[in-house]
Amino acid sequence: MKLFLKKVHTYFYRYSVGTFYIILWPLMYYFSRKPERYNSMNKMRRFWGLVSSGLAGIRYHFEFEEAVDWSRTYVICPNHTSNLDISAVSILTKNNFSFMGKEELLKGFVTGLYFRTIDIPVNRNSKIASFRAYKKAAERMEKGMSMVIFPEGTISGNYPPRLVEFKNGPFRLAIEMQAPIIPVTALDTWKVLWDDGLKYGSKPGVCHIFVHKPIVTAGMTVDDADALRDRVYEIMDQKLQSVS
After folding, report:
1. Which domain holds residue 180?
2. Which of 71, 74, 51, 60 is CA-nearest to residue 210?
3. Which CATH number fits the domain that encloses residue 33?
4. What is the total count of domains within the chain?
5. What is the reported pLDDT for 127?
6. Quick check: bond before 183 cis, omega within 30?
7. pLDDT digit string (tens) for 120-171?
8. What's the distance, Cα to Cα, between the start and end of the chain in Å?
9. Quick check: pTM over 0.85?
């Protein structure tokens, strides 16, 4: 019975996301027509995440290791255990930003519009396509947009989840752009909704997000990418271990 109720909640949450997407779609579409309006698309994304989650009784609490200067451009690296992580990071990030994600998101009902415009799809099976995607990300950063990249690349099939090996892409990008990198640890979003919620359901609750202090990459070279990747992994893994 408990699992049944949790699955009912998942469908209610998904209904909430879809309903507000339909309501907000005309404005989203208008803002998507020109890159100079992308900041407004992000404002819509924040609002959408807040209201669709809030209607399902899901809230987000952010704790900062130190204040973030949102006038700067960053590479933001969150761990990934839940679809709620996307809403959490959208609400967290206060400057103009773009997600990088798998190419399949182009076909998603609620992700397609964003991944055809402001966000950057990546075909991980093609080195050429991946190179082009990261080149596009660098161009966006040169224009002042931050990049949000999940370094795990996917939500792992482990339950309870554990941090899996990071990919190098976001760390090379941060170094090449000499941009600070912000590790973001979602501590318990999976307890509210794991993955897409279809297997174990979901429930109302508070998702606690810890925002680590930015790591400066000025002076680093691409030869330092592996060390930076391992450093970020260790920071996030230690934080997760401290609350497990």
Report:
1. 2-243
2. 60
3. 3.40.1130.10
4. 1
5. 85
6. no
7. 999 988 888 889 999 999 999 999 999 999 999 999 888 999 999 999 999 9
8. 27
9. yes
